[in-house]
# Entry
Amino acid sequence: MHVDLVRVLDMEGTSTRQFRNICVFCGSQPGKNGDFVDAANNLGKVLAERKLHLIYGGGSLGLMGCVSTAALVGGSQVLGIIPQALARGNLTGKTVGEVQHVFSMHERITNMLSHADAFIALPGGLGTLEEIFQIASWAHLNLHKKPIGLLNVNNFFDELFLFLDKAVECQFISQATQKIFVSASTANELLDKLKTFVYEPDAALTQIDWTVGESKKRKLNLTLRL
# Structure
């Protein structure tokens, strides 16, 4: 299934959003100590208590398995979106809840964006960081207005915030862009912040019209001319 990012922006509009589906990014490893597992389990439990549904990257390993299992046991609907290449051979474990197979990593995250009302990141590795920054970059470029929260377990994301401070200091990003991320140390506090969050992008970027050319798409002529 192909998800059109332009249509995602159009559907959001400017009205106040009532959360229903939360997409969680997190590690496929449990982390060094039990605090990370506890935080993932608690997040899944809190989502269920608030009658919110979970979208995640599929599988049952590490924090991904913890948050999805806790949400499902608590009564939430759970959707795991996973590329077929990762699902083969049981590399990631059996997906909890409903599974949606996609062909690529890009299709995975565009489908996540299409289904989710907001995003939460738990601690994780390279894949988690990729997802955090890709979805933040799309917010920066005015492709969506969905809030992005970092669950800062044991100050895990403190150095990421220092990196953003440095990027602002060196004038690679603006202070407005730095404010894309919402942070809290507990799931309940983070969800409360996400519900009231309003991102105000750079004025110049609000002028980007992603619908330009949509009605007059042209096929590229890739014929090699010698």
The chain has nine helices and seven strands. The mean pLDDT is 87. The longest strand covers residues 78-83. Residues 78 and 122 are 17 Å apart (CA to CA).
